[in-house]
Automatic annotation (TrEMBL):
It catalyses: (R)-4'-phosphopantetheine + ATP + H(+) = 3'-dephospho-CoA + diphosphate. Its main location: cytoplasm. This is Phosphopantetheine adenylyltransferase. The gene is coaD. Keywords: ATP-binding, Coenzyme A biosynthesis, Cytoplasm, Magnesium, Nucleotide-binding, Nucleotidyltransferase, Transferase. Pfam families: CTP_transf_like (PF01467). Pathway: Cofactor biosynthesis; coenzyme A biosynthesis; CoA from (R)-pantothenate: step 4/5.
Length: 159
């Protein structure tokens, strides 16, 4: 597989995302991690900040690029001529959403395959949302994100 896109909000990137990026980079020649603009009304980090975190954490992976997109993922994947989309799967709740998402992608970009990677057991509960919720109340999230992201989140919440 030549080019794959791993899309998401990444607000901010967690160790669960980074695990998918590492494994995704092994199954394609070029992996574009694509940060979605406007996915939430009130993101904690700007798109530039989110891209910077991912860039820093993946700088050892030569075939990983970081980009952002607005609007439909189907248009973006066609624009960058991607062969596949990579998505991570945690629980049954992800499956329902991802099935709809993949089916719609097949309608809109039939030549682009959606590939799912199962989460590592230790990250099966992990989402950017839960990290923010715990950090907001000064809970310990240092094992769930990189040291750089950890510092930035705690600073945002005033700790
Ligand atoms: P979230 O806000 O849920 O952390 P994103 O929208 O940024 O996630 O997620 C982008 C992609 O990464 C989605 O396919 C999502 O299922 C996947 N993902 C998020 N967290 C994990 C994890 N801990 N393990 C595996 N995949 C994950």
């Amino acid at each position: 597989m030549k080019t794959a896109v791993y899309p998401g909000s990444f607000d901010p990137v967690t160790n669960g995302h980074l695990d998918i990026i590492h494994r995704g980079a092994q199954v394609c020649e070029r992996l574009i991690v694509a940060v979605l603009h406007n996915s939430q009304k009130n993101p904690l980090f700007t798109v530039e900040e989110r891209k910077d975190f991912i860039r820093q954490e993946t700088k050892d992976l030569a075939n990983v690029e970081v980009d952002s997109f607005d609007g439909l993922l189907a248009h973006y994947v066609n624009q960058v001529k991607a062969d596949a989309i990579i998505r991570g799967l945690r629980a049954i709740s992800d499956f329902e959403y991802e099935l709809k998402f993949a089916s719609m992608m097949r309608e809109l970009a039939p030549d682009v395959e959606t590939l799912f990677m199962m989460t590592k057991n230790e990250y099966s509960f992990l989402s950017s949302g839960i990290v923010k919720e715990v950090a907001q109340h000064n809970g310990d999230i240092h094992r769930l994100v990189s040291p750089r992201v950890y510092k930035a989140i705690m600073k945002k919440y005033g700790y």
